[in-house]
Amino acid sequence: MKRIFYIILILVIPQFIVFGYITNENESQRNIKLQNYTRKADRTVKKVADHSKYKELQQDFERPQDVTNACLSCHTERHHEIMANNHWTWDRQEKIYGKGVMSVGKKNILNNFCVGIASNEKMCTKCHIGYGWTDESFDFSQAENIDCLVCHDQTGHYKKGAGGYPAKDLDLNIIAQNVDKPGRANCGSCHYAGGGGNNVKHGDLDKALNSCSREVDVHMAIKGEDMSCTECHVTENHNITGKLYALSSENKNRVTCEQCHTQKPHDDKVLDNHTYRVACQTCHIPFYAKVNSTKMSWDWSEAGKFDEDGKPMHEEDEKGNHIYMTKKGRAVYQDHVKPEYFWFNGLASHFLITDKITSTPVQLNTLEGSYKDKGNNCETTQCSKIMPVKVHRGKQPYDVLNNTLVQPKLWSGTKNDSAFWVGFDWEKSIIAGMNYLNLPYSGEYGFVETEMYWPINHMVSPADQSLQCADCHTSSKDGRLAQLSGFYLPGRDHFALIDNLGLMLLILTIIGVAIHGGIRIFIGKKNSQH
What percent of the chain is modeled with pLDDT above 70? Predict the structure, then answer.
C-alpha cells in the first residue's frame, strides 16, 4: 500500500507545484521593471518662468488673437510646430488598411456619436486649438488663430465656446499671466468631453482622473505616481505622441506601455510569455468607466419626439445620465464595464462617407488583426495581441438608395435653419449636410446599425486587482475571452478525443498501479509463508 501511496504522490504533487507557480504571480504584487521613467519620489518638477512679470502680457487684450501674438513675440517659432500638429489640422495623410493613402482625421472621419463635423464646425470646434473655425473657409495658415491658452492655462477658469473662441467674461490678462506646461485638466478639457459630455466617448477618459485613487488609475493617482498626460504622451516641439485609432490608421507615433515597462516587466517567465500575444491593458484594465458612466449605444432613429404639449422630451436614469433627449434620441449608459476583446495588430481601417454599405452593422473603424498574425518577430515587430476595447453601437442615418452613410447638419445658431436641432426634420438636415460636402443624396433616408471601436488604455488597476488566470482560462460562458475564437486557450477549450484519451490513460495508469501493487502484495505474503 505504501508503494501505491508514493506513486500517487509522485504523479499528483508536481501538478500542484506547477499550478501554484502559475497562479502565485496573481496573488501578490511584484516589482515592475521600468525604463524611461522617473518615479514620483525622485521626480523634480521644473516650473516655467513667471509670466505675470512680462510686460507683453500686461496689455489689455481686445481679442484672443492678441494673446497669441503676445506669446509669439517671445516664442517666435512655436507656431510652425503647432500648425504641423494634428491637434491643429484635424487631418493627416495616412495609409488606410485596404484603401491606400488618404486624408483622414477628425475633419472628415465619421463616427456614431454626433456623426461628423462637416456643416457643424461651429459646435465641434469648441475643442479645436484655434479661434474662428466656423466653416470650410477657416484659414489654417493664420498663426494668430492658434489658441495657446487652452493647453497652458493654469487658472482652471479658461473655457471655449462656439467656433473655439474663449467663453465670454474671461479675464484673458489673468489667464495669460498664469501659464505652465499642460496638465491633466488642460488635456481633459477636450479629451474628457468628447461626444457631448464627460466620459461619454472613450469610457476611460474621465474628469475623475484629475484627482483619483490608485484603484481608478495607478499612474494618475494623486497619492500614487501622480503622472501628467505628457509623461506617457511624450511631447517634443509640440509633436504629441499618441493617436486615436478612431481617427488614424497607421501604427506609428503611438504610445505603448513597453516604452516604460519593457517587453518583460514581470520577472516571471510564464507571465512575460503572455506579453507576446496579450496587450498589457488586457490584464491590467479589467474594467473601465470606473467612476462615471460612459455611453454604450446611441440610437438617432428615436430623436425628434415631443411630449403631448409639443415640448422637447428629456429622460434620465438614476445616475443622471441622459437616456433620452428629443435632440439626440435614445442612449444606454453603463459604468464599471467589462471590455470586449479583439485581436489587434496596430492597424485600423475606416469607413468613409463615400464607401458603399455591404454588411451590417457597419464597422466605422475596423481594428485589423487575427491570431494567425504573429508578425516576423513578436519581440521587434508588432504582431496581433489581444486588446481590450469599448465597442460603441449606434443607429444613424444613411442613404437608402445610394447605400452610403450621410452627414446631417445638426447645429445652427440661426432660427428657421435646416439643422436638425432647429427644425427636427431629418430630410432637410441631410440635404443641407450633403450639399455642404457636395456629395450626392438620393432623397430617401433610413437608419442603419453601426459599430465603433475604442481601444482601452487608461484606468489601469493596481497589480493585485488585475485579471487572474481563471478569468480567461475557464470554460465558463462568463470567461473574459469566451467570445474570442480561432485559437486554442487552455482551460477554456476542450477536444473530446484528446480529453477521452487522457482520461483513459489516467484510468489505465491507476489500474496498472493497483494491479502491480496487488501482485507485489500477493507475492510478498506468499513468500513470507515459506
Answer: 92
Look at the chain and report how many structural domains it folds into.
2
Residue 67 CA to residue 76 CA, distance in Å, equals 14
CA distances from 454 to 200, 285, 324 (A): 12, 14, 23
Is 163 inside any structural domain?
no
Same domain flag for 311 and 392: yes
CA distance 295 to 288: 12
In a domain, 337, yes or no: yes
Does residue 506 share a domain with residue 423? no
- State whether residue 312 is helix, strand or coil: strand
Digit-coded pLDDT (tens) for 23-39: 444 434 445 678 888 88
Is 20 a residue whose pLDDT tops 60?
Answer: no
Contact 400, 445 (CB under 8 A): yes
Mean residue pLDDT across the chain: 90
What domain range includes position 515?
A: 2-29+495-529
Q: Dump pLDDT digits (tens) for 406-444.
A: 999 999 989 889 999 999 999 999 999 999 999 999 999
Please name which of 374, 367, 96 lies closest in space to residue 250, comparing C-alpha atoms. Answer: 96
Mean pLDDT of 273-293: 96
Residue 212 forms part of a structural domain: yes
Structural contact between residues 410 and 111, judged by C-beta atoms closer than 8 angstroms: no
Residue 137 grid coordinates: 473657409
The answer on pLDDT for 319 being more than 80 is: yes
Is the same domain home to 256 and 322? yes
Type of residue at 484: L
CA distance 444 to 455: 34
Residue holding cell 496587450?
279
H, E, C per residue of 331-379: EEEECCECCEEEEECCCEEECCCCCCCCCCCEECEEECCCCCCCCCCCC
Q: What is the mean pLDDT of residues 201-225?
A: 96
Task: Assess if residue 157 is contained within a domain.
Answer: no
